């Protein structure tokens, strides 16, 4: 499976967009989310602060994809003493903001935000394999700048076919981000190298399809007809980490989705993501996210 085939198979979906206005020097804490989050900065300057990582400097025209389950916050460099930020449905105010000049929103940072899922046909959540944020300055990329401007107009004035149009425009921007980084050999895209190796991909697909199965290095190696040591080395070389670390991350992502979108008991969610013990699941979830499953669920409901 080569890179061209990967691009041919990409699919993308998004939740409804929200418009975040940060007035003055302030933060909008977004915590951890079970989905990847896309931020497009419409105006202002600031940074995206991520737990355990250097902040990402953002300004008008910056597009950032934050991986799932990564705690982060938007921070504005505006004047102090302004009201706290608020988040509203994009359609309510985006037309007004698009009509404003840059000076009309001086002192604010305004971002268009959405949860996104990127996968291959038949395989969801490929974007979960991105472990570091992807950032692109759209103002410097002509094709992306045109696509994002059209996307803004569709969000501001939705009509017949807008959902499909937004999906196509996001796909264009995602492909631009990915192929630019592949050309630069960006380490955050080890997962695409893994997809281009048939043996690694077949094992990876098993974990993506059924993270709750009792996978092990031995069972995965056997499934692709390789020795344990050869498979472990090839997987690590292609993906950048061992298969069991990836499996843990996939299980925690799936658990985050279930905690957010269902009322299932924690014990049942533990079983659905491959844990026979609720206590073992809780320890792993806390080590991964910094929150207990109950605290994570409560935080998601407050958003």
Structure explained in plain terms:
The chain has 303 residues and is of the alpha+beta class. The chain folds into 2 domains: 3-189, Jelly Rolls; 197-302, Homeodomain-like (Arc Repressor Mutant, subunit A). Helix content is 46%, strand content 21%. The protein has 12 helices and 11 strands. It has helices at residues 3-9, 90-99, 142-156, 162-183, 190-196, 198-209, 217-223, 228-239, 243-261, 266-272, 278-289, 293-302, and strands spanning 10-14, 18-23, 27-31, 36-43, 45-50, 56-59, 62-66, 72-76, 86-89, 108-120, 134-137. The strands form 2 sheets. Strands 1, 2, 4, 7, 9, 10 and 11 form a 7-stranded antiparallel β-sheet that branches. Strands 3-8-5-6 form a 4-stranded antiparallel β-sheet, with no helix packed on it. Strand 5 (45-50) and strand 6 form a beta hairpin. It is globular, with a radius of gyration of 20 Å. The model is unreliable at 80-92 (pLDDT under 50).
The level-1 CATH class of the largest domain? Mainly Beta
Low-confidence stretches: 80-92
Main sheet specs:
7 strands, antiparallel
Instruction: Give the ordered list of helices and strands.
Output: HEEEEEEEEEHEEHHHHHHHHHH
Named CATH topology of the largest domain: Jelly Rolls
GO molecular function, one term: sequence-specific DNA binding
Organism: Roseobacter insulae
Keywords: DNA-binding, Transcription, Transcription regulation
Pfam family, one: HTH_18
């Amino acid at each position: 499976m080569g890179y061209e085939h990967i691009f041919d198979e990409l699919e993308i979906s998004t939740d409804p967009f929200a418009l975040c206005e940060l007035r003055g020097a302030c933060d909008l804490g977004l915590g951890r989310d079970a989905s990847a989050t896309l931020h497009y900065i419409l105006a202002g300057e600031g940074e995206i602060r991520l737990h355990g990582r250097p902040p990402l400097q953002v300004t008008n025209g910056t597009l950032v994809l934050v991986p799932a389950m990564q705690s982060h916050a938007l921070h504005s460099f505006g004047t102090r003493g302004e009201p706290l930020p608020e988040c509203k449905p994009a359609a309510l105010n985006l037309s007004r903001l698009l009509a404003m000049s840059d000076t009309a929103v001086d002192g604010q940072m305004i971002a268009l935000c959405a949860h996104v899922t990127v996968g291959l046909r038949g395989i969801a959540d490929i974007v979960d394999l991105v472990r570091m944020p992807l950032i692109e300055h759209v103002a410097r990329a002509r094709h992306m700048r045109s696509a994002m401007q059209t996307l803004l107009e569709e969000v501001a004035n939705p009509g017949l076919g807008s959902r499909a149009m937004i999906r196509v425009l996001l796909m264009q921007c995602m492909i631009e981000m990915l192929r630019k980084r592949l050309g630069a050999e960006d380490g955050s895209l080890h997962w695409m190298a893994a997809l281009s190796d048939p043996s690694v991909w077949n094992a990876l697909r098993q974990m993506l399809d059924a993270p709750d199965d009792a996978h092990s290095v031995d069972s995965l190696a056997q499934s692709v007809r390789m020795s344990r040591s050869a498979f472990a080395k090839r997987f690590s070389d292609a993906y950048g980490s061992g298969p069991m670390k990836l499996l843990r991350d996939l299980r925690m992502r799936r658990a985050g989705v279930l905690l957010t979108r269902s009322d299932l008991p924690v014990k049942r969610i533990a079983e659905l993501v491959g844990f026979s013990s609720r206590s073992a699941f809780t320890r792993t979830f806390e080590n991964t996210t910094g929150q207990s499953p109950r605290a994570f669920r409560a935080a998601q409901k407050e958003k």
